[in-house]
Design brief:
The structure is a single chain. This protein is mainly α and 149 residues long. It has one domain. It is built from 3 helices and 2 strands. Strands 1-2 form a two-stranded antiparallel ribbon. Helix 1 packs antiparallel against helix 2 and helix 2 packs across helix 3. The N and C termini lie far apart (64 Å).
Length: 149
């Protein structure tokens, strides 16, 4: 689900750039410096809004993973992990913070997998072997008792 929303935002960013590129070329050919500046400012404004949405999605995805794994994240007001967006009241994680949190997430996931692997190796596998042995013994006993008749 997040992938679809993220893909649409990235596509919207590409379409925005594609919309303003011909206008910039046309203004460059005309040599109108004021119009070039105006188009650049307008394009930068809309691109920044879309970029903020993309960064917010990345930040929310990392926050969900951190919450599910029990990784602590500092509050946006109290930390340098967060930077304000172009829109008011929008904050998203810095690239440095995203990388640090992803490393922590990967580490926690590896710890979980190791715990599950130990549990599987020490508990489930021996029980499974015992059950297979009992079923095999029962089948063998049944075959022997009915083969003699």
């Amino acid at each position: 689900m997040v992938f679809d929303k993220l893909w649409w935002k990235q596509r919207k960013l590409q379409k925005t750039r594609a919309f303003y590129d011909p206008l910039l070329r046309k203004a460059n050919l005309a040599g109108n410096r004021e119009e070039i500046d105006h188009i650049n400012q307008e394009a930068a404004y809309y691109e920044r809004l879309i970029y903020d949405d993309i960064q917010v999605m990345y930040s929310e995805q990392i926050q969900r993973q951190c919450k599910s794994l029990g990784v602590a994240i500092a509050h946006p007001v109290e930390s340098d992990y967060w930077i304000p967006g172009h829109n008011p009241y929008v904050h998203f994680l810095t690239i440095k913070a995203q990388n640090e949190l992803r490393k922590e997430i990967i580490q926690r996931q590896a710890e979980r997998r190791a715990a599950i692997a130990v549990w599987m190796k020490d508990v489930v596998l021996p029980i499974g072997c015992i059950l297979v042995g009992l079923v095999g013994g029962a089948i063998g006993y049944y075959a022997l008792t009915h083969a003699v008749k």
